[in-house]
Amino acid sequence: MTADRLPFRDPQLPFGKRVDDLLGRLTPDERIAMLHQFAPAVERLGVAPFRTGQEALHGVAWMGPATVFPQAVGLGATWNEELVRRVGEAVSTEARAMRAHDDRVGLNVWAPTVNLLRNPLWGRGEEGYSEDPALTSAIATAYTRGLRGDHPVYWRTAPVLKHWLAHNNETRRDTTSSSVRPRVLHEYDLRAFRPAVEAGAVAGVMPAYNLVNGRPNHLSPYLAEHLRTWTDQELLVCSDAGAPSNLVDTEHYLDTHEEAVAAALRAGVDSFTDHGTDSAPTTARVRGALDRGLIDASDVDTAVRRLLHVRFALGEFDPELDPYAGTGAFDTAEHRALAREAAEQAVVLLANDGTLPFDPAARPRVAVVGPLADTCKLDWYSGTLIHRSTPLDGVRDRFGADRVTHAEGVDTVRLRCAAGLLRVPEGAGADGPDLAERVALDPALLAGRTDLPPLTADDRGSEFALTDWGGGVLTLRAPDGRHLSVADDRWVRASADRPGGWVVQETFRLEPHGDGHLLRHIGTGGHVHVAADGVKVAAADEEPPTPFTVETVRRGVDEVTAAAADADVVIVVAGNDPHINGRETEDRATLALPPDQDRLWRAARAANPRTVLVLTSSYPYAVPDAAAELPALLWTAHGGQAAGTALARVLAGDVSPAGRLPQTWYAADDDLPDLLDYDVIGGRQTYLYFDGRPLYPFGHGLTYTSFAYADLAVERRGDAFRVAFTVTNTGPAASDEVAQVYVRALAPAVARPHRELAAHRRVHLAPGEACRLAFDVPVTALGCWDVAHGRWTVPAGEYAFQAGASSADIRLDTVVRVDGPPPAPRPVLTRGLAAADYDEQHGTVIADRSRTSGDCVTPAGARPGELLFRSCDLGAGIGGVTVEVSGTGTVALAVADGPDPVPLEVAVPGGPYDYAVHRLPVAAGGVRELRGVRDLRVTLTGSVRLAELRFTPADA
Fold first, then answer.
1. pLDDT value of residue 444
2. Residue 693 lies in a domain
């Protein structure tokens, strides 16, 4: 039988049978080869090569020109699922079109990122949608539906959610562990992933680099215990790049790579992204694991089966039936319009005293100033721009180029050393005006060029634009517009169109040295050295660093002051470069605006009170002074190719801004918990639990009109509440409004959110127009995870339904009652106490009970740690208590308000996973206290790891 007539080629058969047929025809080596990201062809069966992984976060990335939409956090700020679904559809349509001409473009797309934006210092905050699980999951479901397409059988692209699980730090991201207690796991982190999976729009997930509760995410038992129970569909788990090797090389979790690949396969990882395109190390490790009996052939088959299901769903084996074959579209008028619409809807008006909008008909003189005024920034997951609109471009087009002035606001300097002034050699800019076009076609031209001469030093020198991005991180731009950059040969050249790359080679730091400075190149860590044959970065054991004197030719703040004084209105555009300030591999150190940018808005305001601050950034800033002193503030994520046009239309009033903040904007760094504190409940994090006063609350955003809310009605209908109210545009302008519904437990027995988003909708209303909105809120949305019984529960009691324009702007409120039995105490005599099921803790972290499953609790440092378990039903009394522990230290148990506990000395031989059971002493009189319903307190010291406690009834 020829290959084209084999059963796996028969479209009349269900995918399951076809996958099994193809799997059965593959040799063991062919099956193993498919486990690597770059699976080779099986020519004898006519099976093509296949690659998992195509980045598509807000457009097709890394494959050259593509439509670039706003960053993911900007899409989250739209609060508009219908819009985001269309963006996903456009991205997947372009992926199909690009693949038709370039087989490097993959259809298994690694997007979206659904990690919750718990801490705004996270370097990858630009990739997520929101700090709230309900909003995140709604936007993620919409985007994946757009990526997947709506055909019942075939998928346009196959999206993979990133990054499973509880991943919010770049600092030591491959070795840090997120301590996630069951309530946070079920109420917060899992909820970001589950709805999109249940909607059938997701092909799989990618585990994160970090560990959760002491266990690497690539060995997560939650993949089997939770993820794969949410759907009957086969789900593909793709490793993150290099993570399988990290299990041994950096995490030291397992001793050999054979053990690591075996453990990952058994945990549910199906595709190994490791060693780039070289599959040999991975396949050798799998064979070694098979030879050692660590896995068997069925483990390989399970993973390959999941991989093949994705390939069949993408139509690879049915090109004549694939509805998406040949249907791709690229850079269409519709995509360009959608990019502008998304950028407009992502703009959030933070404050406005009536200064905005500006009236173009009045022909105001507009000064557009700041380091981001004339740039269209990309991030690590952007495609290459086909079209480009900066804020300056947009304002000139809308208000008239003759009415607009520009000042970048950065210092112009010369760098003097003993050999003279640094200079860009003549001829270094010989590319001419077509450089931008060449860069668009070949992104590699951005940096690392070696075809240009290095800098020299002489009496003439060159002037450089010095931009201080905060934290002492600088970029230096030559007169021809190129940034100083360092290639592998370590010569310093004016060779980069903009900062970029996995390791940015365009950033420097000035370090005080005597009466001058040394210039350190951040990418290599070396200092700049000036020699007779040119300027280079010297290695530590080579030439000594060259001292420089910085001579300021022009002060950026003076240019801004002059431009502001000569204008009717001023627009200061500040923010971050996504390749420099907070990005993958690097968290932020502060919420503060870089000092140089802070000085710019202050100088502009001093010269002209009609100064508006536009923050264009990947994350929130703490700008309390600007909020108090300026007449208007706006925020937008980097908005992609249409960012400038969109901003100008908002400033001119062509579009009323209606974006909403997808995360809390805090007033100061002191409002934040430690970056590695993942307990949003105990740490009082995000709008759900934050007890302070934010600068701007979750869901906040103003418009150019006003809206009234009225007639809230809440009715129980079976397993849901129907929530309805009327929104009316009572102001002068047509505008979108984002109506938000929150729920709140009024007298909870355990810590619950101040309020929690239950539903939302973005609607457009003309002046005077009213709309009756209705939402169905499941009763389960009022619930929480019951650690006492290990289940989701909706406690009986009163709950408030609230409707309004933000989490802090509640317009309507009504109370409903949920009936049911009162909360039951912990049945500790029958269930015992799992250590991680505490109600409160102090000074502890959750760790891995074993390498494959389970949790334990251990002190976080040298001081004792405490666990509190509330409402423990001890019946008529206990006869004894045993603890399952490992490590060395002490364990003590007492009623929370009773006598001091008597500690048990523990010294369990062996490693951390070698447990022993010990009988626990109780303080004098303590046995009499251990009866009835009591709160129990457990104290731990040393390296002891407590897994659980068991109680023996007194009459046993």
1. 42
2. no
Task: Output the domain CATH number for residue 813.
Answer: 2.60.40.10
- 255-292: pLDDT as tens digits: 999 999 999 999 999 999 999 999 999 999 999 999 99
Q: Is residue 36 part of a domain?
A: yes
The neighbouring-strand residues paired with 204 are 160, 236
Q: Which pLDDT value is given to residue 269?
A: 98
Secondary structure class of 202 (helix, strand, coil): coil
Are the beta carbons of 692 and 665 closer than 8 angstroms? no
Residue 921: predicted pLDDT: 78
Q: Is the domain of 926 the same as that of 889?
A: yes
Q: Are residues 750 and 780 both part of a single domain?
A: yes
Structural domain range at position 483: 419-545
- Between the CA of residue 555 and those of 369, 567, 721, what are the distances in Å? 13, 19, 61
Strand partners of residue 531: 534
What is the model's pTM?
0.96
Could you tell me the CA-to-CA distances from 768 to 349, 356, 650, 653, 708 in Å, in that order? 22, 21, 21, 18, 10
Q: Which residues pair with 219 in a beta bridge?
A: none
Q: Domain check: are 518 and 489 in the same one? A: yes
Q: What is the pLDDT of residues 113-160, one digit of tens each?
A: 999 999 999 999 999 999 999 999 999 999 999 999 999 999 999 999
Give the C-alpha separation, 522 to 509, whole Å.
7
CATH number of the domain bearing residue 404: 3.40.50.1700
pLDDT of residue 956: 64
CA distance 434 to 436: 6
Q: Which residue in 63, 54, 55 sits closest to 440, CA to CA?
A: 63
Distance from C-alpha of 628 to C-alpha of 695, rounded to nearest angstrom: 10
Residue 797 lies in a domain: yes
When computed from its CA atoms, the radius of gyration of the chain, rounded to whole angstroms, is: 30
The residue ranges of the chain whose pLDDT is under 50 are 430, 432-446, 924-925
Give start and end residues of each alpha helix (H) in 211-296.
222-225, 243-249, 257-267, 280-291
Structural tokens at position 341: 């619409």
Q: Is the bond leading into 357 cis (omega within 30 degrees of zero)?
A: yes
The pLDDT score that the predictor gives to residue 428 is 53
Report the CATH number that the domain containing residue 483 is assigned in CATH: 2.80.10.50
- Would residue 327 count as lying in a domain? no
Which CATH number fits the domain that encloses residue 81? 3.20.20.300
What are the C-alpha distances in Å from 28 to residues 31, 291, 449? Answer: 5, 13, 44
Residue 938, domain CATH:
2.60.120.260
Q: CA 871, CA 789: separation in Å to the nearest integer?
A: 12
Report whether 383 contacts 343 (CB < 8 A): no
What is the tally of structural domains in the chain?
5
Are 891 and 865 contained in the same domain?
yes
From first CA to last CA, the distance across the chain in angstroms is 71
What pLDDT does 5 receive? 86
